[in-house]
Every structure is written in C-alpha cells, then in structure tokens.
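One such given next:

>
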Amino acid sequence: MADSTLYTNAVAIYDFENNANATKGSNLTATGSPAYSTTGEAQGTYWAGALDGGDYFSITSNTFNFTGSYSVSAWVSFSNLPYYGPICSFYYSPNGSGWAITQDDDYSLRVQHRQNWSDTNYDFTSANFTTSTRYHIVVSHNASTNECWAYVSTTSFGNILNTHIDAATDPGNDAAGGTLYVARHEMSDTNLQGYIDEVCFWNSAITSTDAEAIFNARDGGTSWRETGAAASTSSSIPKIMNYLRQMRGN
C-alpha cells in the first residue's frame, strides 16, 4: 500500500523501538539514561520508559517550523503525578518563543504558547489524569480558526477529552529552527516520569478523523500510515457483483 496523506504530512515520528531513531525526520539525542521497555502497553515491542524525571530526548532542526498551526500525537502513561507530566515542547530560546504540552499540577492537560517570553495557557481541566493508565493524547492547534483541539482517549476515541479552546495566541512566529523536546517541558525545566511512545509531529492542524484513525490503530489495528486502497477495493466487490447480476437479469 502507499503511504497515507496523514503519514506523508508528518514532519517527525518516533516509535522508540529500543532506540531514539526517527521513523520520519531526524534522530533524537537522548539526555540522561532513558531505557526502552516492553512492560505495559507499548504500541510496538518497546516504548521509552520507565523515564525517571532525569531522562528526555531532543533535536534541533530547521525542519521544525512550529510557528502557527501544529499537531502532536503521543501515547503516554504517567508514573508520578501531578508534578512530572511533561509530554513534549518546542522552544527557540533566543526569542523566548515556542509551545509545550504537559499534564499540569491539577491533573489537567495544559497547552502553553510562548511569544517573546510571555505565556498563554490553555487548560483542559476535565482530563483528570491518573497514574498507570495508557492515554492517547492528540493536540491540534489551528492558527486559521484560532482553535486548539484536544483529543484524549483510553478505551474509546475521545472518551476523556474531545473538545477545543479558543486560542488566539500562536506560538511565537520567530521560533522556526528551535529545539524539539520529547518527555520534557523546556520552559519549566521539568521531565516526564513514566512511559511514552509513537510521538508524531505535524506543521499543520490534523482533524478529529485523523486523530481517531491513529487511536484505532492501537494494539496492532489497521495502520493509519497506509492508504485504505485495498479495503476500498474489497468493499466494492459486492457492488460490482450485484451490477453484473442485474445486467444478466438475475
């Protein structure tokens, strides 16, 4: 099958299959001594963990131009809440601009945008994160509609969060070429304690349909990374057979 549009448009994907190599994009540099574990519910064989709060991953590249619309998808399990829940962040320190996605200290999901060292926080307070639960977390910021969407799922798509907050403030427009962090909130100097897997980034806003496709591919389901050409062809066979019967008068 061919690559799906969603996969093609991703600027970086990290599957953490016993390494920090990129499935798409540039390889991450590990800081600390992150491990790769088969414990729990990894998307593949491994995921990154158990991270102890001193471990994270980073990469600096001009590929990462997260200055307007952007999206992030990740599978996360928290080990120590409420103070060690960073998921990822992007920061260009010379101009104090970027964004961060984290579990905040009231167990909510926080999306933070920074422009010229000034922060705007978007808090999804009904997340109510708990430890030792695998979450699929998608944040999609649409700079055209000024909306920040959050989809958080465990047993079914969007069962924890499927909502948006009006977000007129974009991450700084001078943050291109900054540093991307996984399992770290660079602006607050905190790191994740827990597990993280299949972290994906886009320089655009993805849709709820996209987010649901990624969630539905959990645990060996149909991959969101390939087109559904074969499935579409198979589903059309009954229609073709019915048409032939009608032509024969049966």
Q: What stands out?
A: Residues 5-248 form a domain with the Jelly Rolls fold (CATH 2.60.120.200). Helices lie at 5-9, 208-216, 229-248.
